[in-house]
């Protein structure tokens, strides 16, 4: 079957997730800049999550550009990814509302870890369907950034109970690592 509906559905879900996140930021009742001060942790957690969702949207787009068609297993693997991504507004809000306390930061990392594992499963399911010599398989290669991301999340989750800010720094490191353009799929498609 074609991949168009999967792409459109995923784009729509990610757009809704981002919309839900921004709607969770409550407008302060004050009229001066001091009224915004309590929103700083909420805004910071929103920015980090917006970046992660943007990274997933971008990489998902590239991933699907490298494939020709999908099957039922791929549809379920994609839903699995969207499930974990749909929890990002909840953990984002909880983390921001509680000033980056240990448990919310750890749960945030858990959702990021499970999202990364779901993306890995989706990638492997696509490669399995298209073959180990497919454009996607060649482009993904060893997926060093994906593996490092999982390791950093796995370290950050227990670290949150020791120092939640260090755990958040690891989340930022992963985001920065993925913000650096990954042109493996683009380069493979154009060559």
UniProtKB/TrEMBL annotation:
It is found in: Membrane. It comes from the Bacteria. Keywords: Ion channel, Ion transport, Membrane, Potassium, Potassium channel, Potassium transport, Transmembrane, Transmembrane helix, Transport. One of its GO terms (cellular component) is membrane. It is a multi-pass membrane protein. GO terms for molecular function: potassium channel activity; proton channel activity. The chain crosses the membrane at residues 12-29, 35-55, 75-95, 101-122, 150-180. Signal peptide: none annotated. InterPro entries: TMEM175-like (IPR010617). It holds the Pfam family TMEM175. It catalyses: K(+)(in) = K(+)(out). Belongs to the TMEM175 family. This is Integral membrane protein.
